[in-house]
Amino acid sequence: MYVCNCNGIREREVRAAVAAGASRPAEIFKACDAKPQCARCVCDMREYLQEQREALRYAAE
Ligand code: FES
User: Is the CB of 41 under 6 A from ligand 1?
Assistant: First the structure.
């Protein structure tokens, strides 16, 4: 599934970038060697980042 249609960034690439330490959408774009264009995907990227933070918080408890 594509998260960013402008750059052809798939969900697995976003998840890999987040797992590798990306903490902001700009870092996800950088990890994918892309730049934001329409930025419609930024909200979805933030959801992946939030999901990762919650998983880490849960794991730390
Ligand atoms: S959908 Fe990602 S920049 Fe347009």
Answer: yes
Residue 32 near residue 9 (C-beta atoms within 8 A): yes
> What digits encode the pLDDT tens for the residues 3-55?
999 999 999 999 999 999 999 999 999 999 999 999 999 999 999 999 999 99
Regarding the beta carbon of 40 and ligand 1, being less than 6 Å apart is answered yes
Tell the residue number behind the tokens 């969900």, with chain if given: 11
CATH of region 2-60? 1.10.10.1100
Q: By the 8 A CB rule, do 49 and 26 touch?
A: no
Rounded to two decimals, the pTM is 0.91
Mutation probe of ligand 1 site: the residue of 1, 4, 10, 47 with most atoms within 8 A of C-beta = 4
